[in-house]
Design a protein that fits this description.
The structure is a homodimer.
Chain A: H1 4-12, H2 16-22, E1 24-28, H3 30-37, E2 43-48, E3 59-61, H4 64-70, E4 79-84, E5 96-100, H5 106-118, E6 123-127, H6 136-142, E7 150-154, H7 156-162, E8 167-176, E9 187-191, H8 200-203, E10 208-211, H9 226-243
Parallel strand pairs in A: 2-3, 5-6, 5-9, 6-7, 8-9, 8-10
Antiparallel strand pairs in A: 1-4, 2-4
């Protein structure tokens, strides 16, 4: 049985404020939790309807009804774990990094973290307006990738101002990414907000504006979703490391 | 004021069965509805909190409260329109087509329709197990692109069996899509179910297995989301039509 107090404490972790205060976050579902347990993350407690058989004092067997009381999911998935929020490592600018400027949708951030993992991007840099990566919806959408990407929340404008590497950004009037030959395997790729794109202050710091050309002929298609655009750009950047050696 | 009967009829359109019976579907939000009004789609009725000033007998001014009663969205967006479901055109196999095998998530289907529009893919072919493209969540996610892609629901296995074009499918053990040189600008690109990938019966008909290589070094990343994988493959196919002429 879970106490009222335990339920209250876990429910609070929906909010960033409380996650920051207690330095923990929630992950749900057997598959995600198993991935996280295999990483360097420190487990604080596991609440589960099927024992994982880990250290006993870290694991509590609970009923489906209790899981419903603490789960953030519409359909709870057998287990919920509380992990310590890990310390971020310093950013390594000798490799291609992705930077996010006010990405607000948890699903988009989760997909982008998964893409960074897939394409071997070690560092994801988020401005303070980007949704928190320990938001339960983000953790869920990363499918475990969150443990393999180094994420820092910083003052993005000040950071880009201080560094001396190419800064790429996607703009409708940029150079065609497929034929543009200045792509390097280091630098920062900035992706902007879902509705407004890259902010004016960051746009002023972009050194290379690139565009994904539209092939659809008839009419102006709504611009691509930020996660989709990130996948196309990372694919194109990384492809060149294979084929242009 | 909306009558109880009107509210009931619109609410029924959440289900495919009722959409098929009455041959209409629902679109919401000013932007999406305006895009649809500019297309060849036939408007049946518009319920709106701000007049569009179209033909009077097709438009009803309603209150926010009434909009809430008929909207499928958590946060209704000023207008809801009922359009006639258009007839699909025959499939044109002289161009690259995308085929979906049991794609179940409305957000994924919506994103894939938007990608087809962006990359100039005229035909999207869905097997009967793929979520209905006139599902309100799909319509919403396409951002108007649904009017610019020709979508057919067919017996995919029988269809592929009957045609004589390259059939591409994404598999972990396929040939590297970036370096594989047999990509043509015609054929069918098959994308599979979110959890299970391409079904065995369709896999047997694939003539070219391709893979998106993983660059992340450390551990097995969960496979890419189907919409993300589609964006990378379409980008790579279409890029070659630009650079390999």
């Amino acid at each position: 049985m879970l106490s009222k107090n335990q339920i209250k404490l876990i429910n609070k972790l929906k909010l960033k404020k409380h996650r920051t205060e207690s330095n923990v976050f929630v992950a749900e579902g057997i598959k995600t939790i198993k991935e996280l347990l295999e990483s360097n993350l420190k487990l604080k407690h596991l609440y589960t309807t099927e024992l994982f058989n880990i250290e006993t004092d870290l694991e509590t067997l609970i009923s489906e009804a209790d899981l419903k009381r603490i789960s953030f999911l519409t359909t709870p998935n057998k287990a919920l774990a509380v992990f310590e929020i890990p310390k971020s490592n310093p950013i390594d600018l000798t490799q291609m990094c992705v930077a996010l400027d006010d990405v607000r949708d948890p699903g988009n951030l989760g997909t982008i973290i998964r893409l960074c993992d897939w394409f071997g991007v070690r560092d994801l840099i988020c401005n303070k307006g980007t949704v928190d990566c320990f938001n339960p919806k983000v953790v869920q959408a990363t499918m475990g990738s969150i443990t393999r990407v180094n994420i820092n929340y910083i003052d993005l404008e000040a950071f880009i101002n201080d560094v001396n590497v190419p800064v790429y950004g996607a703009f409708m009037d940029g150079k065609n990414v497929y034929t543009h030959n200045a792509l390097l395997n280091s630098g920062i790729l900035v992706m902007g907000n879902e509705a407004n794109g890259v902010s004016n202050s960051i746009e002023a710091l972009i050194t290379e504006k690139i565009a994904i050309p539209r092939f659809g002929a008839l009419r102006a298609t709504e611009s691509l979703n930020v996660a989709t655009a990130t996948s196309i750009l990372l694919s194109e950047f990384k492809r060149r490391t294979l084929t242009e050696k």
